[in-house]
Every structure is written in structure tokens, then in C-alpha cells.
Amino acid sequence: MTNTESAPGPTRKSSARTATTKAADPSSIQVRNPGTGEIVGTVPDETADSVAAKVRELRLYQPEWEEIGPEGRKVLLLKFQDWLFDNTDRLATILQSETGKARVDALIDPSFSADVIGYYARRAGEFLADEHPTPHSPLAKVKRLSTVYRPYPVVGVITPWNFPMAMPVMDAFPALAAGAAVLLKPSEVTPLSALELAAGWAEIGAPPVFSVATGAGATGAAVIDNVDYVQFTGSTATGRKIAVACAERMIPYSLELGGKDPAIVLADADIDRAAHGITFGGMFNSGQVCLSVERVYVEAPVYDEFVAKLTANVKALRQGLDGRVPKYDVGALANENQTAIVQRHVDEAIAAGAKALTGGKRAGFGTAFEPTVLVDVDHTMSCITEETFGPTLPVIKVADEAEAIRLANDSIYGLSASVWTGDKERGARIARQLDVGAVNINDVFANLFSYALPMGGWRLSGVGARWGGAEGVRKYCRQQAITTPILPPAQKELFWQPYSVPKILLAVAAMRAAGARGIRRLDLPAVLKLRGGNK
Ligand code: NAD
Questions:
Q1: Strands 462-463 and 253-256, how do they pair?
Q2: N or C: which end of the chain has fewer CB within 10 A?
Q3: Contact assessment for residue 433 and residue 427, using Cβ atoms and an 8 Å cutoff
């Protein structure tokens, strides 16, 4: 079901607006609504000099931001959370204008962003508190040991276009909560929402420790040249370039990359729930979610029933260009490039013998592509081997659980997976055999809404992870080890020169006694030899 109505435009013009096509002015980029083709903004294509200047300014203000500590930062982060709530409708409209998303999908971004910020604002104090680990040996108990978390001064966050507000917030705000300053480089396709974030940060009176540089790949490369840590979300191909650039500068990085997430439907599953869940998992945000379901493996006894129910659900989706009042379930794709990939995957599958039970072609407005179910698919087709990032659900019949696991693992990616079964223990057992960073049992995306869990890809889906409770802020910190004496200071420690052989023998014997096992604790041939050598 396809329809269009006039899409809302942004209600506030930003002085700096970015996007998809290069404007006549070589120093700016035009942002288009992919559902209508209309230009909705223009932003600067920032140069390396401009990026370097922004990082210099961030470095000026970061020490104070670190100094006020997690409790001081919490006040401002929660004020920003209020700003998000107060501006949700306006922000959703801007976001919708640069993505062509369904209204409901656009409304999710600001609310999800507020939720992430609240979690890290409130918990950062606990997560960043100094730790005092127990010394590994009784001999080390003469010191108080401290692990201290100190932020990287400037973190560069580079993001894609699929969630123009949530994506930046998911990583930039945990870094801010850690005490780092952040330079965000949003996608050139959807920079308007990111600029609104920066405007909101200034509006609440927060210090200038968060800024945005707009532009394409060259601007992103300049960010890497200037910052102390890089958090990247985007394609695997770009992620590889980022890793090389970071290695050249010897700076740490974390990469959240592409995926090809499998769903496994077992014969004991609730087929209605599986069909609804997988419809949502494949079609939410027009399939442009890193964790989208992109492959479905169904046990033979329930294959026909599942395919019939899935196809009915997908057919019933309402597709169109929403206004301010939510009317549709599925909108447009982010750009023509994306539509071309989806079309190629569908065309190649059909040419090789697959069938589209519904969809299979462009939806008739802007970049939109019809929600599509593909069957008679095999494991060599591009719709199975490559990331599609669009509204397609290829379905494959499998003989049993073992074949489903084998095919699910037959991918270069390893982001997440879902298992649909009536037996939770069976689901958990299968989860441990899947080579992916997250598994949702009888659900999709649940890990995305669980900030206490790490969200990271295995294989070519990533390096490192975001979130994971305390790790989500600690990753933006350097760990500093501090030892403080407990005993009153002696003039000279046992091992300090000039060496006293009897004292060193005593110390070595004590180390053996503390560190060795069984008889070796007392057997001192090495010590005696040392004494012999010194006679
Ligand atoms: P992309 O890799 O083309 O671009 C991502 C960002 O990198 C953009 O801001 C771009 O300007 C920038 N960039 C490009 N070249 C660069 C370079 N040489 N140096 C520095 N920056 C550079 O990705 P995309 O098409 O915008 O996004 C879609 C991809 O993102 C998909 O593969 C999707 O799976 C992935 N993604 C992953 C996650 C995750 O959490 N794993 C989440 C969302 C999207």
C-alpha cells in the first residue's frame, strides 16, 4: 500500500546546513528530502583547517569539563535531556525532512536519545569512580592500589545517516559524560539533526565542549587527524580506512560496522509472534538499521505457515510519505545509492531463480522501495552474502536446528541474530553457538534498548563495543594506575641499589613463597645458587 502526502520541512533554518549533493558553492553541501527530492538545507563542507580549529577550541574547554566531575556534568546532561523532550516534535520534523522516514520512526530518535543521555548522566559517577583492586600478592599489600579513569581530551564521533540524531547521541553523550570533549562529524546525507543537537547544547548554556563539523569523507579524515580517540559507526569498507588512519596516528578507536543479521525460526516457535517480530525487524526504518533482520532460516515443518503469515504482514504495511500526523509504517530510503543496492539485490536474486512474494520494486515516490519478501533464495545470492540495508526479507527453508546454525554463521558479518522458539533454554543454547555480538530470543533489537549490555559486532561487523554499563564511559578514558605507600617510608627499599645480597635473598625467597605452588614455595635451589654465585 503506497501513498504520499506533502512532507513537513524543517521549521528552523540552521546557519550551517549539510547533505547529499554538492551545492553550486563548492564549500557547501545541499541536503535533500529523499522522499520528495526537495532541498531542505545547505551546510558547510568543512575543510581540514576548520576541523583543526574546532578541535583546538575543544581542547581549551575540556579540562574544565573534566574538572567539574560526573556530578557537575550530570546537571548539564539532564538539562540537555529536558531540551530534547521540549523540542521532540520540532526535532522529529527536521529529522523527517532529511530522511523521508515514517513519522513514528522519526519520533523515536529524540526519545531514544533522551533515554541514553539519562542513563549515562545518572550513572557516570558510579562508573568512573576510582577502583582499589586487591593486590595480587601479600607482598604487594604495602601499597594502596588505585585505577583512575581519565578521559581522552577530545573524542571524534563519526556517524552514518540511518538515525541522524540517535546515532550521534549514542556515542557522543557517553563520551561527554566521561569528561571528554566531542567533535561530531555526521553523515553528509543527514547533517541537519546533528546541527540541531549542537544548537541545543549551546542553548542550555553548556560549555563549548561539543561541536559539529559537517562535510563528507575528507572532513571525517580530518577529524581523525586531530582527535585523541575515534568512535566510528558506518560501513565496513569505511571502517577499514578509519582503522588504518588511526593506526598511523597510534590512537585508539572503536568501530560499529555493517551486519547481515539472521533470524532462526524453529518449529516449536509461536509463529504469529515470529512473523510479526521479523516483519518489524526487517522493515523498521525501511530496513535501514544495522541490526535489521536480513536473512530468515525457517525449520521445514513450519516454513509454509511462517512464509504465509510473514507475507501477509509485509503486504499490509502502509508505505508513504508522512506528514506531521503519523499515517504510514514505512517511508523512503535515505538516498538513491541505497535504493540502487536494494534493487540490485532483488534483481540478482530473481534472475537466479528467487521469487518476490510481495514487493520487489520501487514504491513510486522518491527513493522508496516496496517492502519485499523473497523465497527460493540460496546462499550464493547477493541478497544473502552482502548487507542490503533496505526493506527485504529473504527466507530460506532449513531441515533442522543444526542447518540453521551453520547457515546463520556462514557470513563475513557478526552483528546480531534472533532465535524464535517455544523453549527459552533451547534458544539460549543456540545463542551460544552463533558467532555474533548479540542474540535476542523471541525478539528483535532488544539489545539496542539495553545500555547495560555491550553492543558490538564480531567478525567484520566491528571492533570494540558501545555501552555495556560502565564500559560505555570507561572506553573514553585512559586508565591510570596510582600506587600510594601504606607503610611509613624507609630510607631505602630492599631492591634499591647498592644491592644487599642477604636482603635480596630474603625478598626472592618471599616472592617464591607467595607466588609458587606446593613444595616449590619452600624449595629454594635458585636462591641458594644465587648465594653460591656471590661467595
Ligand atoms: P559510510 O561508511 O559510507 O559513512 C559513515 C560516515 O563515515 C559518514 O559520516 C561519512 O562521511 C564518513 N566517512 C566516509 N569516508 C571517510 C573517511 N575516509 N574517513 C573518515 N570518515 C569517513 O556509512 P553510511 O552509508 O553512512 O551508513 C550505513 C552503514 O552504517 C551500514 O553499513 C550500516 O550497517 C552501518 N551502521 C552500523 C551500525 C552499528 O552500530 N554497527 C549502526 C548504524 C549503521
A1: antiparallel
A2: C
A3: no
Is 70 exceeded by the pLDDT of residue 285? Answer: yes
262's grid cell: 539472521
Residue 256, ligand 1, Cβ within 6 A: yes
- Residues 18-38 pLDDT 10s: 334 555 566 999 999 999 999
- 464-503: string of b/e by CB count within 10 Å (b at 16+)? bbbbbbbbbbbbbbeeeeeeeeeeeeeeeeeeeeeeeeee
Q: Which of 167, 187, 255 to mutate to test the pocket of ligand 1 (most atoms within 8 A of CB)?
A: 187
Residues of the chain with CATH 3.40.309.10: 261-453
* Residue 290 annotated among the catalytic residues of the structure: yes
Query: Topology of 20-258+470-479 in CATH?
Result: Aldehyde Dehydrogenase; Chain A, domain 1 (3.40.605)
| Residue range(s) in the chain whose domain bears CATH number 3.40.605.10 | 20-258+470-479
194-251 pLDDT tens trace: 999 999 999 999 999 999 999 999 999 999 999 999 999 999 999 999 999 999 999 9
What is the mean predicted confidence (pLDDT) over 37-63? Answer: 98
234 lines ligand 1 (CB under 6 A): yes
Q: Single out the residue of 467, 523, 488 nearest to residue 256, CA to CA.
A: 467
Nearest protein CA to atom 16 of ligand 1, as residue: 217
Query: How far apart are the CA of 138 and the centre of ligand 1, in A?
Result: 50
438 Cβ below 6 A of ligand 1: no
State whether the beta carbon of 246 lies less than 6 angstroms from ligand 1: no
Q: Which residues neighbour 168 within 8 Å (Cβ) at sequence distance 6 or greater?
A: 157, 159, 184, 186, 193, 194, 197
* pLDDT score for 22: 55
383 classed as catalytic = no
Cβ proximity of 333 and 368 under 8 Å:
yes
